[in-house]
Specification:
single chain; 3 helices; 0% strand; 78 residues; flat; mainly alpha; 44% helix
Length: 78
């Protein structure tokens, strides 16, 4: 059953992904990626907590549109 999958893997050379080969390719996450990462993190915490017998409710996660501010910042608090 899996022999064709194993054979196709064997035909492809393995890629050596090291930190050195990724140098200079880092970038900031997009808004959608930030939402996805936060959701995944929240679900992992929930699964971990419930696995240890605790109840856990994940809070709401702001959408990509909600994360974009309108550019107004109040920085003088005195």
């Amino acid at each position: 059953m899996n022999s064709t999958r194993d054979e196709s893997r064997a035909a492809q050379p393995e890629q050596d992904v090291t930190l050195g080969s990724l140098k200079g390719q880092e970038r900031d996450l997009t808004g959608a990626e930030e939402v996805l990462v936060e959701l995944a993190e929240s679900l992992l915490v929930k699964k971990c907590m419930e696995g240890r017998g605790f109840r856990y409710w994940a809070g709401p996660i702001a959408s990509a549109a909600e994360r974009q501010g309108d550019g107004y910042v109040l920085d003088d608090v005195s």
